[in-house]
Amino acid sequence: MCNETWQSRAEEYIDDSRRLGYALTTTSAYLLSFARFVDQRGHSGALTSDIILDWAQSTDSKKPTTWTKRLINIRRFISHCSRVDGKSEVPRVDVFGRPKGRPTPHIYTELEISELLAAARELPGTLPSATYETLFGLLASTGLRLSEALHLRCSDVDLRSGRLIVRQGKLGKSRLVPLHATVCEVLSRYLGVRQQLPLTSESYFFVSQTGGLLPRRTVEGVFIRLRTKLGWAPRGNWRAPRIHDLRHTFICRRVTQWHKEGADIDNAMLYVSTYVGHVAVTYTYWYLTGIPELMTVVGQRFEAFAESARGAENAE
């Protein structure tokens, strides 16, 4: 153990995490960079805040936000080391200043979604137009991730029972996704067009014109062309509306409706978190504060609660 390098420890941590289902696509690069930095310093023993912060700032960027991003990407590994050796120091996440909040997404209006589907319908070619209209419509009506929709097999789409089986979710988890009857009707119509290509249980549901997997880059390219044609102005913190914002829109609308109906929000949040495949329900609770539309609803409910509390107090 005494001859073990920090790089080997980081590689072992990455391998263990991936076996648990974590992709660590971006984080692994930061971890290996940090481990090599520590090895080059000849550091042994527990990690110190000094060497951790030195690495975070060992970049061409002089922006504290960049240093914070680097630190955030290795903090879980450092915490792991601290639990193992009982001595490694874990710097505060705000040591370089308050971290940037999660960017506010673009929440589509019903008109924008209708425009997107109509524009997809006008794409050249019977199969491509049907594919993109159905794909974008499914994303908007279920909140699926784009990767989940693209990896659906025909055997995963059970229109008779009205549900999908998602096998490519976060952490490799599978889940059942119930479908509204109107969504089943649209998927059934798409299958009618889809019949022009070989159709087996293991075929991809959404296909390219050659019958293979529809590449994500191709889908994003088509979306960008349609978005440009429609001339949408972004309403979030991103430079332009994204495909992933259809997922945000689905969650936001559902939670907003529950708030308006006075539903038991804690139970409702657990339900929608499971439905969309969030890794933790805390990711779903972010929408209560991260979306202006929901902040308005929550504020109105709080005002009503405060007024009711004052009335009860005065009655006493």
From TrEMBL:
Q: From which lineage does this chain's organism come?
A: Bacteria, Pseudomonadati, Pseudomonadota, Alphaproteobacteria, Hyphomicrobiales
Molecular function as annotated in GO = DNA binding
The UniProt record lists the Tyr recombinase domain at: 103-300
Q: Which family does it belong to?
A: Belongs to the 'phage' integrase family.
PANTHER family annotated for this entry? INTEGRASE_RECOMBINASE PROTEIN MJ0367-RELATED, PHAGE INTEGRASE-RELATED
Q: Which UniProt keywords apply?
A: DNA integration, DNA recombination, DNA-binding, Plasmid
By what name is this protein known? Integrase/recombinase
Q: Which InterPro entries match?
A: DNA_brk_join_enz, Integrase-like_cat_sf, Integrase_catalytic, Tyrosine_recombinase_XerCD
- Keyword DNA-binding tagged: yes
